[in-house]
Design the sequence.
Protein backbone atom coordinates (compact mmCIF):
# COMPACT_ATOMS: atom_id res chain seq x y z
CA UNK A 1 0.00 0.00 0.00
CA UNK A 2 2.97 2.33 0.45
CA UNK A 3 4.09 2.40 -3.20
CA UNK A 4 1.42 4.20 -5.17
CA UNK A 5 1.08 7.22 -7.34
CA UNK A 6 -0.52 10.33 -5.99
CA UNK A 7 -0.15 12.41 -2.86
CA UNK A 8 -0.86 12.27 0.85
CA UNK A 9 -1.62 15.34 2.93
CA UNK A 10 0.98 15.27 5.70
CA UNK A 11 1.25 17.95 8.42
CA UNK A 12 -0.12 20.64 6.16
CA UNK A 13 1.57 19.83 2.85
CA UNK A 14 0.99 17.39 0.03
CA UNK A 15 3.83 14.87 -0.27
CA UNK A 16 4.29 12.09 -2.84
CA UNK A 17 2.46 8.92 -1.67
CA UNK A 18 5.62 6.81 -1.29
CA UNK A 19 7.38 9.52 0.74
CA UNK A 20 4.74 9.88 3.48
CA UNK A 21 6.94 8.21 6.12
CA UNK A 22 7.58 8.41 9.85
CA UNK A 23 10.30 7.27 12.24
CA UNK A 24 10.32 3.78 13.86
CA UNK A 25 10.55 5.39 17.31
CA UNK A 26 7.19 7.08 16.85
CA UNK A 27 5.23 7.06 20.11
CA UNK A 28 2.01 6.29 18.26
CA UNK A 29 3.49 3.02 16.97
CA UNK A 30 4.81 1.80 20.33
CA UNK A 31 2.04 2.93 22.64
CA UNK A 32 -0.95 3.36 20.32
CA UNK A 33 -1.19 7.11 20.91
CA UNK A 34 -3.02 7.41 17.63
CA UNK A 35 -6.55 8.18 16.47
CA UNK A 36 -8.06 7.95 13.04
CA UNK A 37 -11.17 8.33 10.90
CA UNK A 38 -12.73 6.34 8.08
CA UNK A 39 -14.75 8.39 5.64
CA UNK A 40 -16.26 7.89 2.28
CA UNK A 41 -16.80 10.12 -0.72
CA UNK A 42 -19.65 9.51 -3.13
CA UNK A 43 -19.74 11.40 -6.42
CA UNK A 44 -16.79 13.52 -5.25
CA UNK A 45 -18.56 14.57 -2.02
CA UNK A 46 -17.45 13.38 1.39
CA UNK A 47 -20.43 12.08 3.34
CA UNK A 48 -20.69 13.87 6.73
CA UNK A 49 -17.17 15.26 6.41
CA UNK A 50 -17.62 17.81 9.23
CA UNK A 51 -18.94 15.18 11.62
CA UNK A 52 -15.95 12.93 10.95
CA UNK A 53 -13.55 15.83 11.56
CA UNK A 54 -15.30 16.66 14.83
CA UNK A 55 -15.02 13.03 15.92
CA UNK A 56 -11.30 13.03 15.03
CA UNK A 57 -10.72 16.05 17.27
CA UNK A 58 -12.83 14.50 20.04
CA UNK A 59 -10.91 11.20 19.76
CA UNK A 60 -7.57 13.02 20.14
CA UNK A 61 -8.94 15.00 23.05
CA UNK A 62 -9.87 11.76 24.84
CA UNK A 63 -6.29 10.54 24.37
CA UNK A 64 -5.00 13.79 25.84
CA UNK A 65 -3.60 15.47 22.76
CA UNK A 66 -4.60 18.32 20.46
CA UNK A 67 -4.38 18.03 16.70
CA UNK A 68 -2.60 21.21 15.55
CA UNK A 69 -5.01 21.85 12.64
CA UNK A 70 -8.49 23.27 13.02
CA UNK A 71 -11.59 21.66 11.53
CA UNK A 72 -11.86 24.09 8.61
CA UNK A 73 -8.26 23.33 7.58
CA UNK A 74 -8.85 19.58 7.79
CA UNK A 75 -12.11 19.76 5.83
CA UNK A 76 -10.47 21.83 3.09
CA UNK A 77 -7.47 19.47 3.05
CA UNK A 78 -9.76 16.46 2.48
CA UNK A 79 -11.50 18.16 -0.43
CA UNK A 80 -8.25 19.33 -1.99
CA UNK A 81 -6.85 15.81 -1.61
CA UNK A 82 -9.78 14.30 -3.52
CA UNK A 83 -9.29 16.86 -6.29
CA UNK A 84 -5.54 16.27 -6.55
CA UNK A 85 -6.04 12.52 -6.55
CA UNK A 86 -8.87 12.78 -9.10
CA UNK A 87 -11.11 10.69 -6.87
CA UNK A 88 -14.88 10.48 -7.16
CA UNK A 89 -15.93 7.41 -5.13
CA UNK A 90 -13.27 7.06 -2.48
CA UNK A 91 -12.27 6.13 1.05
CA UNK A 92 -10.47 8.72 3.19
CA UNK A 93 -8.21 7.92 6.12
CA UNK A 94 -7.17 10.81 8.37
CA UNK A 95 -4.79 9.67 11.15
CA UNK A 96 -3.20 11.66 13.99
CA UNK A 97 -0.43 10.47 16.31
CA UNK A 98 2.22 11.43 18.82
CA UNK A 99 5.65 11.81 17.25
CA UNK A 100 9.12 10.55 18.14
CA UNK A 101 10.82 13.16 20.36
CA UNK A 102 10.43 11.23 23.62
CA UNK A 103 10.58 7.46 23.77
CA UNK A 104 8.82 6.36 26.90
CA UNK A 105 5.29 5.85 28.08
CA UNK A 106 5.22 9.55 28.89
CA UNK A 107 5.46 11.77 25.83
CA UNK A 108 3.43 14.79 26.75
CA UNK A 109 5.50 17.19 24.68
CA UNK A 110 5.89 15.11 21.52
CA UNK A 111 4.79 16.76 18.30
CA UNK A 112 1.31 15.76 17.15
CA UNK A 113 1.14 14.80 13.49
CA UNK A 114 -1.78 14.51 11.12
CA UNK A 115 -1.88 12.78 7.75
CA UNK A 116 -4.76 12.20 5.35
CA UNK A 117 -4.72 9.57 2.62
CA UNK A 118 -7.46 8.78 0.11
CA UNK A 119 -7.88 6.03 -2.44
CA UNK A 120 -10.44 4.86 -4.90
CA UNK A 121 -13.24 2.82 -3.39
CA UNK A 122 -15.98 2.29 -5.91
CA UNK A 123 -19.32 1.84 -4.25
CA UNK A 124 -20.81 -0.52 -6.75
CA UNK A 125 -24.35 -1.01 -5.75
CA UNK A 126 -24.60 -4.67 -6.58
CA UNK A 127 -27.75 -5.76 -4.78
CA UNK A 128 -27.45 -9.39 -5.79
CA UNK A 129 -23.99 -9.60 -4.13
CA UNK A 130 -24.80 -7.65 -1.00
CA UNK A 131 -28.24 -9.14 -0.54
CA UNK A 132 -26.84 -12.61 0.02
CA UNK A 133 -25.70 -11.44 3.43
CA UNK A 134 -22.42 -12.12 5.17
CA UNK A 135 -21.54 -14.76 7.79
CA UNK A 136 -20.26 -13.72 11.22
CA UNK A 137 -18.24 -15.70 13.75
CA UNK A 138 -18.63 -15.13 17.49
CA UNK A 139 -15.52 -13.29 18.63
CA UNK A 140 -13.47 -14.61 21.52
CA UNK A 141 -12.39 -11.17 22.72
CA UNK A 142 -14.83 -8.72 24.21
CA UNK A 143 -15.28 -4.96 24.12
CA UNK A 144 -13.73 -3.60 27.31
CA UNK A 145 -15.45 -1.95 30.24
CA UNK A 146 -15.63 1.86 29.75
CA UNK A 147 -13.58 2.09 32.95
CA UNK A 148 -10.72 0.44 31.00
CA UNK A 149 -10.42 2.75 27.99
CA UNK A 150 -12.09 5.83 26.46
CA UNK A 151 -14.46 3.85 24.23
CA UNK A 152 -15.86 6.88 22.40
CA UNK A 153 -12.45 7.55 20.92
CA UNK A 154 -11.69 6.05 17.52
CA UNK A 155 -8.30 5.16 18.93
CA UNK A 156 -5.86 2.76 17.27
CA UNK A 157 -5.32 0.89 20.55
CA UNK A 158 -8.93 -0.24 20.70
CA UNK A 159 -8.53 -1.95 17.32
CA UNK A 160 -6.13 -4.60 18.58
CA UNK A 161 -9.05 -6.77 19.68
CA UNK A 162 -10.87 -6.01 16.42
CA UNK A 163 -7.98 -7.19 14.24
CA UNK A 164 -7.54 -10.33 16.37
CA UNK A 165 -11.24 -11.13 16.10
CA UNK A 166 -11.46 -10.40 12.38
CA UNK A 167 -8.40 -12.52 11.56
CA UNK A 168 -9.71 -15.42 13.61
CA UNK A 169 -13.09 -15.17 11.85
CA UNK A 170 -11.49 -15.00 8.39
CA UNK A 171 -9.27 -18.00 9.19
CA UNK A 172 -12.48 -19.98 9.81
CA UNK A 173 -14.10 -18.75 6.59
CA UNK A 174 -16.34 -16.05 8.07
CA UNK A 175 -16.47 -12.48 6.78
CA UNK A 176 -16.40 -10.82 10.20
CA UNK A 177 -17.09 -11.40 13.89
CA UNK A 178 -19.75 -10.31 16.35
CA UNK A 179 -18.21 -9.03 19.56
CA UNK A 180 -19.81 -9.16 22.96
CA UNK A 181 -18.96 -6.58 25.61
CA UNK A 182 -17.28 -7.23 28.94
CA UNK A 183 -20.69 -8.04 30.49
CA UNK A 184 -21.42 -10.65 27.84
CA UNK A 185 -23.97 -8.48 26.01
CA UNK A 186 -24.06 -8.11 22.23
CA UNK A 187 -21.91 -5.11 21.21
CA UNK A 188 -20.88 -4.74 17.55
CA UNK A 189 -18.84 -6.22 14.72
CA UNK A 190 -15.10 -5.49 14.37
CA UNK A 191 -15.65 -2.29 12.37
CA UNK A 192 -19.40 -1.79 12.18
CA UNK A 193 -22.48 -1.53 14.40
CA UNK A 194 -25.14 -4.24 14.50
CA UNK A 195 -28.93 -4.22 14.20
CA UNK A 196 -31.59 -6.94 14.44
CA UNK A 197 -35.20 -7.18 13.31
CA UNK A 198 -37.98 -9.03 15.11
CA UNK A 199 -41.73 -8.72 14.45
CA UNK A 200 -41.28 -5.57 12.36
CA UNK A 201 -39.26 -3.79 15.05
CA UNK A 202 -35.58 -2.90 14.94
CA UNK A 203 -33.36 -3.67 17.90
CA UNK A 204 -29.81 -2.48 18.45
CA UNK A 205 -27.48 -2.41 21.47
CA UNK A 206 -27.03 0.85 23.35
CA UNK A 207 -23.62 2.29 22.45
CA UNK A 208 -22.40 2.45 26.04
CA UNK A 209 -19.01 0.78 25.51
CA UNK A 210 -18.45 0.97 21.74
CA UNK A 211 -18.54 3.55 18.95
CA UNK A 212 -21.92 5.16 18.27
CA UNK A 213 -21.24 5.12 14.53
CA UNK A 214 -22.15 7.99 12.26
CA UNK A 215 -23.78 5.45 9.94
CA UNK A 216 -25.61 3.91 12.91
CA UNK A 217 -27.18 7.26 13.77
CA UNK A 218 -27.95 7.95 10.11
CA UNK A 219 -29.67 4.58 9.66
CA UNK A 220 -31.68 4.99 12.89
CA UNK A 221 -32.89 8.31 11.43
CA UNK A 222 -33.80 6.66 8.12
CA UNK A 223 -35.64 3.86 9.92
CA UNK A 224 -37.66 6.25 12.08
CA UNK A 225 -38.47 8.38 9.03
CA UNK A 226 -39.99 5.21 7.52
CA UNK A 227 -42.05 4.74 10.66
CA UNK A 228 -40.10 1.72 11.92
CA UNK A 229 -39.70 1.45 15.66
CA UNK A 230 -36.03 1.41 16.72
CA UNK A 231 -35.34 0.05 20.21
CA UNK A 232 -31.92 0.65 21.77
CA UNK A 233 -31.53 -1.87 24.55
CA UNK A 234 -29.48 -4.62 26.15
CA UNK A 235 -29.30 -7.58 23.77
CA UNK A 236 -28.11 -10.92 25.09
CA UNK A 237 -26.46 -13.55 22.86
CA UNK A 238 -29.18 -16.03 23.91
CA UNK A 239 -31.68 -13.87 22.01
CA UNK A 240 -29.93 -14.18 18.65
CA UNK A 241 -32.03 -17.21 17.65
CA UNK A 242 -35.21 -15.16 18.00
CA UNK A 243 -34.30 -12.45 15.48
CA UNK A 244 -35.42 -12.71 11.85
CA UNK A 245 -33.06 -10.24 10.22
CA UNK A 246 -29.65 -8.81 11.06
CA UNK A 247 -27.51 -6.14 9.42
CA UNK A 248 -24.36 -4.12 10.05
CA UNK A 249 -23.83 -0.39 9.55
CA UNK A 250 -20.62 1.55 9.06
CA UNK A 251 -18.86 3.91 6.72
CA UNK A 252 -17.19 1.00 4.95
CA UNK A 253 -20.00 -1.54 5.51
CA UNK A 254 -22.80 0.94 4.63
CA UNK A 255 -25.82 -1.32 5.32
CA UNK A 256 -24.63 -4.92 5.03
CA UNK A 257 -27.11 -7.76 5.57
CA UNK A 258 -25.99 -10.65 7.78
CA UNK A 259 -27.14 -14.17 6.91
CA UNK A 260 -25.56 -16.08 9.77
CA UNK A 261 -23.99 -15.61 13.19
CA UNK A 262 -22.47 -18.88 14.37
CA UNK A 263 -25.39 -21.34 14.59
CA UNK A 264 -28.10 -18.73 13.89
CA UNK A 265 -29.50 -17.88 10.45
CA UNK A 266 -31.23 -14.72 9.30
CA UNK A 267 -33.16 -13.82 6.20
CA UNK A 268 -32.41 -10.68 4.21
CA UNK A 269 -35.87 -9.26 4.69
CA UNK A 270 -37.81 -6.15 3.73
CA UNK A 271 -36.64 -3.86 6.54
CA UNK A 272 -32.99 -4.63 5.83
CA UNK A 273 -33.31 -4.12 2.07
CA UNK A 274 -35.38 -0.96 2.53
CA UNK A 275 -32.73 0.60 4.76
CA UNK A 276 -29.94 -0.58 2.47
CA UNK A 277 -31.59 1.21 -0.45
CA UNK A 278 -32.51 4.28 1.64
CA UNK A 279 -28.92 4.66 2.79
CA UNK A 280 -27.65 4.34 -0.77
CA UNK A 281 -30.20 6.90 -1.97
CA UNK A 282 -29.22 9.30 0.83
CA UNK A 283 -25.45 9.24 0.25
CA UNK A 284 -25.85 9.49 -3.51
CA UNK A 285 -28.71 11.98 -3.34
CA UNK A 286 -26.69 14.35 -1.14
CA UNK A 287 -23.77 14.19 -3.57
CA UNK A 288 -26.03 14.80 -6.58
CA UNK A 289 -27.68 17.77 -4.88
CA UNK A 290 -24.35 19.38 -3.99
CA UNK A 291 -22.98 18.77 -7.46
CA UNK A 292 -26.11 20.21 -9.08
CA UNK A 293 -25.94 23.30 -6.86
CA UNK A 294 -22.53 24.26 -8.27
N1 LIG B 1 -17.59 0.32 15.32
C1 LIG B 1 -16.28 0.23 14.99
C2 LIG B 1 -15.37 -0.55 15.87
C3 LIG B 1 -15.81 0.87 13.83
O1 LIG B 1 -14.52 0.80 13.51
C4 LIG B 1 -16.72 1.58 13.01
C5 LIG B 1 -16.22 2.25 11.77
N2 LIG B 1 -15.71 3.53 12.06
C6 LIG B 1 -18.06 1.65 13.40
C7 LIG B 1 -18.47 1.00 14.56
C8 LIG B 1 -19.07 2.41 12.57
O2 LIG B 1 -18.78 3.78 12.63
P1 LIG B 1 -19.16 4.76 11.43
O3 LIG B 1 -20.56 4.47 11.08
O4 LIG B 1 -18.99 6.11 12.02
O5 LIG B 1 -18.23 4.48 10.31
Sequence:
Amino acid sequence: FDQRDGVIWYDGVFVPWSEAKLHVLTHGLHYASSVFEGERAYGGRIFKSEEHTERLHASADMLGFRIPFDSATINTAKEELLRRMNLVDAYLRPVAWRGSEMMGVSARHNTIHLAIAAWEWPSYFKPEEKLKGIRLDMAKYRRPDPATAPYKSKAAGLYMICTLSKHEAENKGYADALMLDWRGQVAEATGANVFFVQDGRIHTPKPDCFLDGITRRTVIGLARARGFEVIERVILPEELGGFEQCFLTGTAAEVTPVSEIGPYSFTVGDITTTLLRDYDALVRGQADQLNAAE
